[in-house]
Design a protein that fits this description.
The chain has eight helices and six strands, in the order βααβαβαβααββαα. The chain has 245 residues and is α/β, with parallel strands linked by helices. It has a six-stranded parallel sheet, with helices on both faces. The longest helix is centred in the N-terminal third of the chain and has 24 residues, at 68-91.
Length: 245
Amino acid sequence: MTEGSEPDHIAIIMDGNGRWARRRFSPRTEGHKAGVRATQAIIEACARRGVTALTLFAFSSENWRRPESEVRILMELFLRTLRDEIGRLHENGIRVRFIGDRAGLGRSLQTEIGRAEEKTAANGNLTVNIAANYGGRQDIAQAARRVAEEVAAGRMRPEEVDARTLGAYVSLSDLPEPDLFIRTGGERRISNYLLWHLAYTELWFTDRLWPDFDSAALEEAIADYQGRQRRFGRTTEQVEHQRHA
Ligand code: FPP
């Protein structure tokens, strides 16, 4: 809750694969492949550290605007990574879930996602949520639509709709909200990521490109997080009194 505590849930925007490749005069694909390797290392580091949940932004609702060839390569990479890695993730007790509009993804990727979720559903070491075809506004909109359906069906009264009831329909509602948000690649924005969930999350930005983000960089982000005081709207005095009580 306050200074020194471990983050339970870490959310990451993995940015900078393309620039990493360009600096090496390599095709962008090489950057994405290096990004996959960085992702594997960070998943392992989070599992070792006892983090409860890690949520990774793999593909946003807006990423379809990229050149068709890059979108295709990314989708193939997701599919191949999922097929190659799911066994090892499962052996390590890691649960894998996806958030976002999966109906918009290719048929074989949807099948593999379903398999991965089913296979790892009972694992309790670390939950890795992969946001694919995900948008924060779309997430809130789908929650509002489902609440509206409940109201229209007479199962909920309009005056019962508040932040708590709506929040139950937003994705990841069964997990603690992210404690720490990390964005690599130098941009300082949220880019329609977990808009609902990040209300009280500590934000950490780095210029480091995603393929260069390693466990030491993760430690740096966590150490910075641990030096902060989270007040959730209360005063410093209240927080300190609570801590010493
Ligand atoms: C940002 O680089 C990254 C993405 C568009 C997402 C793809 C992420 C990976 C391939 C990492 C692995 C993920 C999983 C779930 C296995 P960018 O292309 O936006 O970089 P740029 O801003 O330098 O062009």
